[in-house]
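2024-03-11 09:14:02 DEBUG pipeline.ingest accepted 1 chain
2024-03-11 09:14:02 DEBUG pipeline.ingest length=193
2024-03-11 09:14:03 DEBUG pipeline.predict start
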Amino acid sequence: MKLGDKINTFRTLNNLSQSELSEIIGVGEKEISDWELGNVYPTIHQIEELSVAFRIPLFELLLDDLGDIELIVYRTPLRQCYWIAFFSGVISIFTMAILYHRVGLWALYLSVGCLIIHLFSLFKLITYKGSKLLQTYGAILSYVNNNGISVEENPFLKKSEKITFADIILLLITAISTGLFIGIVYSMFTYSP
């Protein structure tokens, strides 16, 4: 049984309406409805409040969802985006820097396609890294894996929001491939035989 179903079941067992539960938890009635329908996932603090309100252990609420949460946090499209951005950027640089002068215009088309894929992957990466759902799931896993110590309570568990080495590599690849593209386009328009 998923968390939304459990919230509905325990709310019904405790003879609480959605509005009564929303007053206890301190959220809107619509939010309770969204949790029960599975449209929105509550934060770790709201799940703690639910476990207190229902008088059940927090782990009982989360038990069936932990596998899905781990899959989302650890096997996310984040890795795929990193790899797609990396390889498309490298191919773009290779085709612009080496193949363009030997093969010609089709190499430029290939490199532009790779550059577009690279930039799209970077956009998805930035969007996904800032996702509230990913942050909520990460906080839940941190709480569960650290025996009830939430990320906010333990500063050593906070994930660094600094730029990672992989981010720096991707930014360098983006700068090089964009610079090469601009240089080639410029040379095409200024070249006079």
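2024-03-11 09:14:41 DEBUG pipeline.report The first helix runs from residue 3 to 13.
2024-03-11 09:14:41 DEBUG pipeline.predict end
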